[in-house]
Write a structure and sequence with these properties.
The complex is a heterodimer of chains A (342) and B (208). Chain A has seven helices and 15 strands. Chain A is 35% helix and 33% strand. Chain A is an alpha+beta fold. Chain A has two domains: 34-154, Roll (Nuclear Transport Factor 2, Chain: A); 162-336, Nuclear Transport Factor 2, Chain: A, CATH 3.10.450.50. The radius of gyration of chain A is 25 Å and the shape is globular. In chain A, helix 3 crosses helix 5 and helix 4 (158-170) runs antiparallel to helix 5. Chain B is α+β, with helices and mostly antiparallel strands and 208 residues long. Chain B is built from six helices and nine strands. Chain B has helices spanning 2-17, 22-32, 46-68, 99-102, 120-126, 130-142; strands at 36-43, 81-87, 90-98, 146-151, 162-166, 172-176, 183-185, 190-192, 201-207. Chain B has a four-stranded antiparallel sheet with strand order 4-9-5-6, covered by helices on one side. In chain B, strands 1-3-2 form a three-stranded antiparallel sheet, sandwiched between helices. Chain B is elongated. Classes of the chains: A alpha+beta (342), B alpha+beta (208). At the A-B interface, helix 1, strand 5, strand 6, helix 4 and strand 10 of A face helix 1, helix 2, strand 1, helix 3 and helix 6 of B.
Chain lengths: 342, 208
């Protein structure tokens, strides 16, 4: 063959390869970018660090591809990186709302927990189910001791989380010095909150104790008096676990989406019974049919740390009238309930 | 043709490089550089993000200084550099300090001061929200560090009482010391008066 005749062909082929590569890069920057997690601290075992980085990078890249392609069931990594339970929970969450990791590169610490490891601060953009608007939300990912992803939750505001954990070390009035235990409480609170977004009635059934007391406050109008100058007061309704869950199940079915967020999380330890905690959160409930804001107070029992339970859950509206907030002294606390140590 | 190839290769490299936001890259490089202490806060408003970032930065720098035996300059936050950005409906405030800027006065053989337990008043000063105070005041009362507390509507001897003033959202606006018309604002150390907070909610407490 004549070498001179081949030259233009080779050049065109090379040009085609370069253009194809450039086009791929442009296309991928418009569509789903690969996401990379880099752990900058907290990992003493290199193999484990690499496994966790690979697991999270693969998971977030799959999620972003699913978001770009508008998939109804998300692509997820295999069971060597993501546990079956975590995959099921992620699919449940995805069926309620879609999200993507908003940064192509995430740099975070690896935290050690009682059962394994944790990465916080994964930046997500969550698509509102009824519009194309995006809201910011951070995720927290938990791993077992081998680096397998075992859960993916929406995080409590990282600042408040930091404040709570730091507060526990600095403020003796809480009588909680065990940072791991405090992380474990917040982990369950995050799981509990995400369960509403996932419509995961089974987790809620599991976490409420058999004799759980559920109190829900509703604002009612009463005649104006010295005691009620605004003509309103809160009427409380008591429910047992089954009544509450059955009403919640109905709400899950009736609403195409449910979005629950917690902020201003505050945790206190019971003064006499070890491993009983009062958790107060400001809750925003947003669903396709109904929205409200109020305070949720829960009594968490961590005496069996493998299966913590909620004995009490109360809800009180934030506003009594359009401009009158509930008095903070009226929000339930641990002191409002009597416990008998078993 | 050669020029065309070079142009295409350069274009490709530019497009590849531009895939990562330069601001994000800068933040991540600082996060990976162990010579920096950093905080990364995202909140619904820039003011909230900034406030929390500086509080956290102070705490993190003090923790590091204790371990490194370094005496810190007075105004740590003035040494911090910042990067701000929007994250969907929220605001990111990233603040960082190079440790070298803080390392000019080593403690040498100085004996570290014995930590003293915080007084009830010091603890109350640190609280930002009404619901936190409610639980704290009850706890302090049970521990005998305050005599009594209550809503402003139940106050009996106002001249003996400290007053905590809240805004509508329950944020602490002021902590006023005992007094009659003139009181001292213990958060600003300036003279203040209850008259300046008409329409606000308040709680009172009496120290032991």
């Amino acid at each position: 063959m004549n070498r001179k005749k081949l030259k233009p062909f080779k050049t065109v082929a090379l040009l085609a390869i370069i253009l194809q590569f450039a086009f791929f890069n442009v296309q991928s920057s418009w569509a789903a970018e690969p996401v990379r997690l880099v752990i900058n601290d907290g990992a003493s075992n290199l193999q484990l660090k690499l496994k966790i980085e690979r697991a999270v990078s693969t998971l977030l890249t799959d999620i972003n591809s699913s978001f770009s392609d508008n998939l109804t069931i998300p692509l997820l990594p295999g069971s060597d990186l993501l546990s079956t339970d975590a995959a099921r929970d992620l699919k449940q969450l995805w069926s309620n709302e879609q999200f993507r990791c908003r940064d192509e590169e995430v740099v975070e610490h690896l935290l050690t927990t009682r059962d394994g490891y944790q990465v916080r601060g994964i930046p997500l953009s969550v698509k509102h189910p009824d519009s194309s608007s995006l809201t910011y939300q951070e995720a927290v990912i938990n791993f077992d001791k081998n680096g397998l992803i075992i859960s993916f939750f929406y995080a409590i505001s990282p600042e408040l989380y930091g404040k709570n954990t730091k507060g526990a070390l600095q403020d003796s009035r809480n009588e909680v010095t065990d940072i791991e235990e405090r992380m474990m409480i917040l982990n369950y609170v995050e799981h509990f909150r995400t369960a509403y977004n996932q419509k995961d009635i089974e987790f809620l059934r599991q976490v409420f104790s058999t004799n759980a007391l559920i109190i829900t406050g509703t604002v009612i109008k009463v005649s104006r008096s010295e005691l009620n100058p605004n003509g309103v007061r809160i009427k409380y309704r008591k429910q047992n676990k089954e009544e509450y869950l059955s009403n919640l199940q109905r709400a899950f079915r009736a609403n195409s989406y449910i979005k629950v967020t917690f902020d201003n999380v505050f945790i206190t330890a019971h003064p006499t019974i070890q491993n009983i905690y009062g958790v107060t959160v400001h809750q925003k409930w947003n669903s396709s049919r109904y929205s409200d804001e109020g305070y949720v107070f829960m009594v968490w029992d961590f005496r069996n740390q493998d299966e913590p339970q909620i004995h009490v859950r109360t809800w009180q509206p934030e506003f009594l009238t359009h401009d009158q907030r509930i008095d903070s002294n009226d929000i339930f606390t641990l002191g409002d309930f009597d416990f008998i140590d078993r | 043709m050669k020029r065309c190839l070079i142009f295409c290769a350069a274009l490709m490299l530019t497009l590849t490089a531009s895939a990562i936001d330069p601001q994000l890259k800068r933040i991540n490089n600082i996060k990976l550089d162990t010579t920096y202490i950093y905080v990364d806060v995202t909140m619904p408003t820039m003011e909230q993000a900034k406030e929390l970032a500086y509080v956290q930065l102070q705490q993190d720098v003090q923790k590091w200084a204790k371990q490194a035996h370094v005496i810190l300059p007075d105004d740590i936050n003035s040494l911090a550099e910042t990067i701000t950005s929007r994250r969907d409906d929220q605001y990111r405030f990233f603040a960082f300090i190079n440790k070298e800027k803080l390392q000019n006065k080593p403690q040498g053989k100085q004996v570290p001061p014995v930590p003293q337990e915080e007084s009830a008043l010091d603890r109350i000063k640190k609280v930002h929200y009404d619901f936190e105070l409610k639980q704290m005041l009850e706890s302090l009362k049970q521990r005998g560090e305050i005599k009594e507390y209550g809503k402003y509507s139940t106050i009996k001897n106002p001249e003996q009482c400290h007053l905590i003033i809240y805004d509508e959202a329950g944020n602490v606006r002021a902590l006023l010391g005992p007094g009659t018309t003139e009181r001292k604002n213990l958060l600003t150390n300036q003279p203040d008066s209850l008259k300046n907070y008409r329409g606000s909610r308040a709680d009172w407490f009496i120290l032991k």
